[in-house]
Amino acid sequence: MSIVASIATANPEFKHDQKAILDYMIRVLQSPEDERKLLSILYHRSGIKSRYSVLSEFSKNATLSFFHQNGKPQPLEGRMALYHEQAGQLSIKAIERCLDGKCTPDEITHLITVSCTGLAAPGLDIELTENLKMKSTIYRTSVNFMGCYAALHAFKQADMICKTEQNAKVLVVSVELCTIHFQNRNDMDNLTANLLFGDGAAAALVCSDKMASEKGWKGLQIKNFHSDIRFNGKKDMAWKISSTGFLMTLSNYIPDLVEAGICELVTASLKTTGNSPSTIHHWAIHPGGRRILEVIEKELKLNKNLLESSYNVLRDYGNMSSPTVLFVMKDIWNNKIDWNKDELMFAAGFGPGLTMESMVFEVKRMCE
């Protein structure tokens, strides 16, 4: 068995109120009066109060600089330059918080980087290895372009490593700079993306339960994985590269697809562990949007307080793509888990495909 022994998160310095972002969108998109009313309704219903960005210009009265140079959209190379300037720094903040009190970077044996908002070679994995002075012989893996469920997929890789190498210390780091891909377009896909996404990073330390026990570390023992692809949703969620950045497709049918598949996903995921939904104490559901949380709440017949951490993360950060579910898990870790009891956590994320990825964790008091 393997243990998630630590989780930490980080955000860029610029925190933007959702109302300020709405004002920015109205100003930049030069929306007519009827569209302004629609945007105001959508932003009001989003369940989001604030989001973070590596860019300052989404705030009130900020200078329109990055996306509006010489009246032309920022080209892809300019967006990627900003990603490479900022993504590593933000990742390091999360990593340092994650490893604090546990181990030093040069003790990490395996590094798994997760991102879908920027790519290069040499990439984030080598940048982090060099800047954190990890061993040059470290085993590196990159999970790219999987979207919002990718951190859970990275946990699969970490779990397999720890099951075969008892002394492994696996660092998973997920970072997304979604806001650098803002598109000055008035279609519904871009309006939805501009409404939802923010920037953030999260890191997790995964090791064998044997090592966690020896170190006296508490954590979340990985019990099971289960994933499913709803191929009829391939066109409803997509993330494609263009000359002016990455283009997001988010149809209004995504909540319906999640609604149709969530019960089957939960049942199949819990079947191998011998559990039922009623035995789950904590639900770490990726808050892809307010309506997604509402349909899951309805289909699984959950009390709203069981999704409180998901709603809180959506409210305070928006959807940050892959790190978001780790933000939810961190909130549960800090505020919900009773570390003196045997409890279960169910985590799920949704992304292109339409892919539905899930995990089951058991709370472990390894410090006993």
Automatic annotation (TrEMBL):
Keyword annotations from UniProtKB, A to Z: Transferase
GO biological process: polyketide biosynthetic process
Domain of life of the organism encoding this protein: Bacteria
Catalytic-site annotation from UniProt: C148
Name recorded for this polypeptide: Predicted naringenin-chalcone synthase
Disulfide bond is among the record's keywords: no
Keyword field contains tRNA processing: no
UniProt-listed InterPro entries: Chalcone/stilbene_synt_C, Chalcone/stilbene_synt_N, Polyketide_synthase_type-III, Thiolase-like
Location of the Chalcone/stilbene synthase N-terminal domain: 3-209
A Pfam family hit: Chal_sti_synt_N
Domain called Chalcone/stilbene synthase C-terminal: residue spans: 232-361
CDD domains registered for this protein in UniProt: CHS_like (cd00831)
PANTHER family: HYDROXYMETHYLGLUTARYL-COA SYNTHASE, TYPE III POLYKETIDE SYNTHASE A
